[in-house]
Amino acid sequence: LVVDVATGAMNRILKNVIDAPKQDLFIKVLDNLPPSKDATDAESIYKTIFDMYTNRGELFKQVAQPLIAALIRSLMKGSILSDELKQSIKECLTLMNQEDPQGFYAIVSGLGEEATNFMASLLSFHVCYQI
Fold first, then answer.
1. Which residues neighbour 63 within 8 Å (Cβ) at sequence distance 6 or greater?
2. Distance of alpha carbon 43 from alpha carbon 18, whole angstroms
3. Is the pLDDT of residue 113 over 70?
4. Are 111 and 72 in contact (CB under 8 A)?
5. Is pLDDT of 125 > 80?
6. CA–CA separation, 15 and 63 (whole Å)
7. How far is it, in rounded angstroms, from Cα 23 to Cα 26?
8. % helix / strand / coil in the chain, to the nearest 5?
9. What separation in angstroms does the CA of 51 have from each of 33, 90, 93, 111?
10. Which residue from 25, 61, 30 is spatially nearest to 46, judged by alpha carbons?
11. With left for phi above 0 and alpha for psi between -120 and 50, is residue 38 left, alpha or beta?
């Protein structure tokens, strides 16, 4: 619950501070997704993520890898997230994959076998393991 409250507070900071160096703060928020007890404030974080992806500003470029990791982790472990939010996360990940399949796969494969297999089943891309 403390992490969820902190995530909500960080979301309010991110919304209200325009020119501050936000990437470090935002990465901390991403590291704490999905929420474990209360998804209310976290839904605003996910909306911020979707807006960042849509606008593809400088902050998005700086946090793309932890952002993708947070979205994947949210689908894998976010049992309290609404079905609508999970669908939006899937759509966002699908668009990222379609836009840059090689770059997306490089990020996903760096997240470990469990995440790679999960995304392979979700997006139907082929997983190749080096032996």
1. 23, 26, 27, 30, 52
2. 20
3. yes
4. yes
5. no
6. 17
7. 5
8. 75, 0, 25
9. 17, 15, 13, 23
10. 30
11. beta
Residue 94 in contact with residue 108, Cβ under 8 Å? no
Q: Report residue 97: phi and psi, to 5°.
A: -65, -45
29, two tokens = 């928020």
With a pLDDT cut of 70, the percent of the chain lying above it is 76
Identify which has the larger pLDDT, 74 or 5. Answer: 74
pLDDT of 2 over the 60 cut: no
- Count the alpha carbons within 13 Å of 2 in the hemisphere toward its beta carbon: 0
**In the numeric block, which tokens belong to residue 24?**
């470090």
Sign of CA dihedral 127, 131, 67, 20: negative
Torsion of CA 72, 31, 53, 39, to 10 degrees: 80
Spatial separation of the C-alpha atoms in residues 3 and 33, rounded to whole Å: 9
Q: Are 28 and 10 in contact (CB under 8 A)?
A: yes
Write b or e for each residue in 44-79: b if 16 or more Cβ atoms lie within 10 A of its Cβ, otherwise e. ebbebbbebbeeeeebbebbbbbbbbbbbbbbeebe
**Euclidean distance between CA atoms 10 and 84, whole angstroms:** 23
